[in-house]
Amino acid sequence: MPTTRFSSDDEGIDAFYADLAEHDLQPLWELTGLMTAEPNPRAVPFVWRGKHLSALAERSGELITSDRRVLSLANPGLAGAPYAVPTLWAGIQYLNGREVAPAHRHSPSALRFVLSGSGVFTLVDGDPIAMEAGDLVLTPGWTWHEHHNTGAEPMAWLDGLDVPLVHYLDAVFFEPGDGSPADATAERSDSERRYGCAPGIVPVGEVPVRPHSALLTYRWADTDRALTAQLDQDTGRSAVRFVDPVSGRDVLPTLRCEMHRFLAGNQPLTRQRVGSAVGVVLRGSGSIALGDTRHEVAAGDVFAIPSWTPVTVSAESDLDVFQYSDAPVLSALGLYRERSYSPEF
Amino acid sequence: MPTTRFSSDDEGIDAFYADLAEHDLQPLWELTGLMTAEPNPRAVPFVWRGKHLSALAERSGELITSDRRVLSLANPGLAGAPYAVPTLWAGIQYLNGREVAPAHRHSPSALRFVLSGSGVFTLVDGDPIAMEAGDLVLTPGWTWHEHHNTGAEPMAWLDGLDVPLVHYLDAVFFEPGDGSPADATAERSDSERRYGCAPGIVPVGEVPVRPHSALLTYRWADTDRALTAQLDQDTGRSAVRFVDPVSGRDVLPTLRCEMHRFLAGNQPLTRQRVGSAVGVVLRGSGSIALGDTRHEVAAGDVFAIPSWTPVTVSAESDLDVFQYSDAPVLSALGLYRERSYSPEF
Amino acid sequence: MPTTRFSSDDEGIDAFYADLAEHDLQPLWELTGLMTAEPNPRAVPFVWRGKHLSALAERSGELITSDRRVLSLANPGLAGAPYAVPTLWAGIQYLNGREVAPAHRHSPSALRFVLSGSGVFTLVDGDPIAMEAGDLVLTPGWTWHEHHNTGAEPMAWLDGLDVPLVHYLDAVFFEPGDGSPADATAERSDSERRYGCAPGIVPVGEVPVRPHSALLTYRWADTDRALTAQLDQDTGRSAVRFVDPVSGRDVLPTLRCEMHRFLAGNQPLTRQRVGSAVGVVLRGSGSIALGDTRHEVAAGDVFAIPSWTPVTVSAESDLDVFQYSDAPVLSALGLYRERSYSPEF
Amino acid sequence: MPTTRFSSDDEGIDAFYADLAEHDLQPLWELTGLMTAEPNPRAVPFVWRGKHLSALAERSGELITSDRRVLSLANPGLAGAPYAVPTLWAGIQYLNGREVAPAHRHSPSALRFVLSGSGVFTLVDGDPIAMEAGDLVLTPGWTWHEHHNTGAEPMAWLDGLDVPLVHYLDAVFFEPGDGSPADATAERSDSERRYGCAPGIVPVGEVPVRPHSALLTYRWADTDRALTAQLDQDTGRSAVRFVDPVSGRDVLPTLRCEMHRFLAGNQPLTRQRVGSAVGVVLRGSGSIALGDTRHEVAAGDVFAIPSWTPVTVSAESDLDVFQYSDAPVLSALGLYRERSYSPEF
């Protein structure tokens, strides 16, 4: 330890450091890595391949009898923790035909993003939300939720949760249900009926104040239409954010959700954002540069974006990417920054 | 003046009152009507008949050359003021085929509600908003606006403004345009493209903070779909509020807009609200009781609802009523109250 | 009526206008004065002299037996209405020694600003607020309030209310008390004990969300200290705003309160603000230009500032002016503007 | 690994798990400890003794030449990390007479709580804040700050930061100053002059919207007065929160600060709160039960309160405890809960 930087008394300092340790103290002046000019994440940029995820999820369906059949994406930089990035969970959940994942609730919040298939609905506090490819479905913190596959075919989707963050904050509460699936059918959800009919048209009466969105699902047809309408012909890009239709805030207090479209041959832009994110390719192919490394990606690929990593997307065929991040956390705490610039390559 | 209630010195009090008057003072104890147990409006409940409004608007189109051809609805209780209720303006604006109402802007905010026809668009700060039957269009305070009738047919619509309120508050600012109509066409509005594609799906980036809605029009097809989805089969009623899709607040800081649907034979409910409102029948027929008087109404009829007036609607045929009110003002000032109860008849 | 501007058919237009009138309609194109380039208030700038107010209040104390002994300041521009400006009430309330003004409550909000004396306390929902010279005391809308003069001397203070505004909005509710004065003494108010000890130090627990300030009184010693601390030596001016200590918002949803200090020989600044205000001189003397007219003022003088009137204050001796206005209303409705500039004289 | 719970195919599952690991995936159904009924923190309740902290800080002053002479309190449950609890830093900073800790800034926010002494001031973005015993001083995220000891005596204080949280979120930015101390003196701070004169009395003009408090210091005399005024005679307890005087929000977006007073023989109450906290005894003595263990504490002792730990304080002599926590983080993310009950002993 290069203590001579801090004292001329070599013996004294050794004794002093031993006394500090004995009293559960550490000398700040010897600590390094706490304050860095810019974020220096342990998590690494990483891509999980959709073809592996699909195949392994299918094997889990054949082999595993658990009713929470989820493959958790574990970032190699995080020392074995089952987390995609330090704050966010990403998992592939797999439900066989006619299966039910029974009810529970927990303080962490979740989103489900459907990559393919149909026939499943999720009950959120009793409200049935049908799930089809491209749909985003929310199960906010402390809401009861269960998944029903009413079809014969298995279905897989991406689970995104703030579990790592809530666990870090020592704020996890969990309550199992009574084990018996609800007797429900996949009617139209009350949430959609009230808040999903049209932009800015809501029931008369007081607008509810909740920590999460009043609308619990965002349908692919709607997202696709918005991406098409907002496409910038010059850059070949378009991007939407999913927000609570009665507050404009992020859909969940801990999770921001976005969908990005890049037309083939788009004009690339490099972005850096404080905070961690996970992306998944819904459709198309191209390359995503994460820091210095360029990855060829295709539908089903999931990737981790550690904080402040430069990201540049170039589409080969028209590319739709869903992304969730902890940006609302950074924003709420006054820590959010972002910047974008033309890539150098 | 029954001054003896307040003094035993009759002569002294006369001299005193004269001195008060000389110094521009008035004795509170002699003033009555300031503090009432409940609101006691001067405006009266009133109905203007659609058939008269149409016929007279048409005559104005033939006879009058002004480019702001508006018939102002004047509540008989308001001593000749051209106001439907103390805070709200209601007018029928009439634009002949190929006519333009040129640009200006003013601190009062306006809404346009189209009763029939098509072919007109309104430019709001350069953004072209097409207008068709059942549409609600906003021209918020201090935005430039002009109306273009691109068709051959005349068109009439209902203008709703907060002019009386803004005038009362001595806050009117007005600026005329340069007189030459903008060279614009009725493309899709930028406001709809960005905020009107789907509930809760908005452009990535900071959500704008504005005193008025980010969405400048609410289309009848959307409103109709929401009314249908939210219909309560037991009561035969449904009601939606129009809000800013990124804040959930009323569309304008001074005006709340709602659409109410009553099925034939609906179960009536009596409502009282603090603040003034104006209603207009878009479709159907029935009776509207305003206080003690019941009015048979049909499409095109406009009615004034003074503050705290009990309102009960009974549909004969399915009835759609658009309503705007000063409720955001009352709410912002902590003065809003409402109550509802089963009617006694 | 110069109708020829709008039609070539003189006879037709006369008949048309008659028909409009018969159907309670007015032609907008004939209406003038609705839309002006800048606010054009009916209320006039005006000064009520403190010496008259004092003398007449004292006479009311001798002559009048009412328990709401208030002289209402009536702006000469307002056609006999007992209002200082269109939205604001100003009155001199006078309470003889040992008198009580019994409890009532009303939806309008009130402030009391004490010009001199002591010995009175006001109960606000049971919380006793002592009143001394220079103190500002709030009785927010719908709070029960009564005034007790525990001393032998009469006391007079300035009442400021939003009664004209609430009356205009048809939102007045009033409820009398049971007539018997509360058995209370002028201890320290709970409101001060909790929210008035020190800036930013409040009870642990959820901060209450109320339309009005959690603190019901602002003491002269505090105001004086803040004015002294914030004095700009270059301009000889200082000005503070009274706000809710737990929200930073104006003390009442309809009323903004400020205190301004001008040192003798201050560098003057002309201000124009949208909305109406009332000022009162607490201390000192000088001149106040309201529009084109300069008024010499002294302690006790009350003045009306109609909307957008240029105001310029020049102190002869150090001058403290309390002011209340309807600025929160204008701000909440997106109608507030202000500007300031060096005066031209 | 008890895989037999999840499959009957022992060999297949081993191969499957190996394939998962190879592809950086983990089986959720084998993961335990993620979802617990209640928070289950790794950090342990712990007390650092003031006498050791003082003695070791003094030794650092004699021995160490660093200009950030800080002893970092390291919770024994956190595997060697220099953090008091997972989200919060606690350190004892020691500045010799005439010493300066030169300027830098960083995205983490800090508070300084002075246990004894005087003669130091901290410059926050150029505003000099004097520091005396019992004072709370803020250096919000990304503000430049430096400490000047103008006296001859050394001074030590408690540093509280959100460094662990900001580090976890990969949001640390740091910028050193140019190394030369500012030429400043300990005049009254501008922050106090504007926002610290009196509750609810602030400069006229727009109230600033900032992520942190407009007031950068809370003086002990003020805190003491508030604790005295709000003392509950029945329970012998009183507690205040420090908030932004113009928003009522916590002083920093990540840190809540409170001061608690317990009179000798107070009626104890047990509290549990989600989120982590650090306490320090300013004055007095007594016992603090953290979970199942009771600790006798005296002035200068610092203690760590992991999430959801039951805390019960019993004063022997009148006891003042300053506490900071990550409660604003939990609240902003919708994760905060608390409960309190009479202790069982």
TrEMBL record, chains A, B, C, D:
Does the keyword Oxidoreductase belong to this entry?
A: yes
**Is Lipoprotein tagged as a keyword?**
no
Q: Which Pfam families does the annotation name?
A: Cupin_2 (PF07883)
- Cupin type-2 domain mapped to chain residues: 96-159
Xref: SUPFAM superfamilies: RmlC-like cupins
Q: Supply the EC number(s).
A: 1.13.11.4
Q: Which domain of life is it from?
A: Bacteria
| InterPro entries for this protein | Cupin_2, GDO-like, RmlC-like_jellyroll, RmlC_Cupin_sf
Keywords assigned? Dioxygenase, Oxidoreductase
- A single MF term (Gene Ontology): gentisate 1,2-dioxygenase activity
What is this protein called in UniProt? Gentisate 1,2-dioxygenase
- The species this protein belongs to is Kutzneria viridogrisea
